Amino acid sequence: MGSGTPVVVQGAAVASPYDHRAAAADAQPQQQQTGGAVTTTAGTKGEDQEKKCRDFPFAILLYGNVGAIIAIASAWGKDAFDQQLDETSVSGHDYNGYIYSVLILGAISLILTGVTLPIMMCIPEMLIKLSLILMLILSGAMMVFSFISGNVLGGIFGVIFFLIFVCYARAAWSRIPFASVNLLTACTAIKQNCGAILISYVFVVLAFGWTFVWSVGVMGVWEKVVQTDTVQTAAGQQVATNSANYGYLFLLFLSYFFTHQVIQNTVHVTVAGVVGSWWFSPAESSGCCRSGVTGSLCRSLTTSFGSICFGSLLVAILQALKALANSARSNDNQILICIAECILNCLER
């Protein structure tokens, strides 16, 4: 290895394999003598970026979205529960099951969040191998189930995807040690900056609270705009049908995914900043609330927040369209809906 500036590998400084002295010399001012005069020329150095809040209109749009859902939940959400208790519900839905589902899923997410990090720290390589093996098992099981149930076309597609997954696993198997080292390095960075874990937990609680408030708001909107009609089938059975407005559904889905993506991406940007600070300055960025953690969180919530909201909105539009297509599966034109979902999946990736 050369004797250049040390680089950081998993928080430990080692000798750099590259010669950084030439680049460092270019960044220093150079003196040249022309005749009897000595001139100084500045070295090539990047310019400091101006610190300002970028894309702030999208941050304002997020605040307006959250405020609108809170207002709807306060105004209409309580009425939906009151009408249900009085048996005067327009839509005829029992909302208690939805609330219980939100509470149970929120508790499960908190538990899984706490369990995932220790598992990744203990068995990173085995975890990656298990994910590949599980992918093969599930695709093989779906292939076998399709043939057993008599769905020959689904079985043929299952065979194709199973072979694709086998080829992918074979190609990626030799890269698992490199991926496991990367995963272990990231976990080590987070472990030495435990404040990032606390921040993640806070945002998980925020996501849970947003899901609860949004669910109450959706119940209120559903009670106001959805009409439930009872029709009689040819067999003489009474069937309840809902006249859902897909415009309202799209706006509700967009509202939910927009805020949820902002929460998720804020954590992502914060953790990326923490890992970057730890990588280059491990001594200064190791601790619960050191400058690496607080500075990264501050940038995520101020100068970078508008850009986070902008990117989250683009992803939320695709997710809302995808959710809308899933909700329309019970209607006619199933082929067109499947094509639309395929296009949306390609755009989302």
Overall description:
With 349 residues, the chain is mainly alpha-helical. Helix content is 70%, strand content 8%. It has 11 helices and 6 strands. The strands form 3 sheets. The protein has a two-stranded antiparallel sheet. Strands 3-4 form a two-stranded antiparallel sheet. β1 (7-9) and β2 (12-14) form a beta hairpin. α4 (124-148) runs antiparallel to α5. The chain is globular and about 60 Å long.
In short:
The chain is mainly alpha-helical. Helix content is 70%, strand content 8%.
Structural key phrases:
single chain; 349 residues; mainly alpha; two-stranded antiparallel sheet; 11 helices; 6 strands; globular; disordered N terminus
Radius of gyration: 27 Å
Number of helices: 11
Q: Sheet with the most strands?
A: 2 strands, antiparallel
State the shape.
globular
Helix content range of the residues, please? 55-70%
Q: How much of the polypeptide forms β-strand, as a percent range? A: 5-15%
Q: pLDDT under 50 segments (min length 5)?
A: 1-8, 10-24
Please provide the ordered H/E string of secondary-structure elements.
EEHEEHHHHHHEEHHHH
- Structural class call reads mainly alpha
Average pLDDT for all residues: 76
Number of strands: 6
Strand order of the largest sheet: 1-2
Distance between the termini: 40 Å
